[in-house]
Amino acid sequence: MGKMVFFDVDGTLLNSRNEVPPATVEAILRLKEKDVKVAIATGRAPFMFEFIREPLGIDTFVSLNGQYVVVDGRPIFQFKMDPRHIERLLEKGKEKGHPFVFMSHDRMCATMNGHSYIKESMRSINVPEPGYDPEFYKKGPVYQMLLFCEPGEEKEYEAEFPMFRFLRWHRYALDVMPKGGSKAEGIRRISEYCRISKSDIFAFGDGMNDIEMLHFAGKGIAMGNAPDIVKRYADYVTKHVDEDGVYHGLIAAGLL
Fold it and tell me: Per the residue annotation, which of 8, 206, 210, 244 is the catalytic one?
């Protein structure tokens, strides 16, 4: 297989209005015409970005920050969180008054109903509020969790739970994933499965959870709207997502 491009979702494929810009749609269709494989790499669960991948015909993706990986519509890797570790995490959250959301590949459920931090952070990415089921983790696989707390409050969790990574994506929300899990790890699995060399992998992203994949890819391209710390790990910085950053980045990378 030839070249492959991985796109983050929020702040990369989706602009500040939570829309895929027409220039990005056109660019992806042109990539496919050139037989460049197009994939997504996101912290979202698969059911949370169906509205993007189905119209664009994208069936290869790294989701849940590398915990659920799919090639051509078929899962090739799934890493479930240990229910015993989840239980300990929930005890700590109860003590601190912090809610969590459990994330599987097809749905998500919260430990508290109607919490303002959950409402606000989900609204920011245009995702409906999750259902309520504090015992969801006992019934099905959990690939990732969300922790909702004020900035800085995660430090206690980081010290007490070294088996997890805590990555903030909103003022009130963090991804919680197994230590060692990342988009880069998911991309590595796809590259081995599809026999694509690292030098033929391109990655676009803008968030803290994109750092590893920008560093891992043969060419990492940061969006103009990315924080400076993310840009430092990129080979190239394109324009802001609202200025057709994906389109311009693909031209700079020599893919269009």
Answer: 8
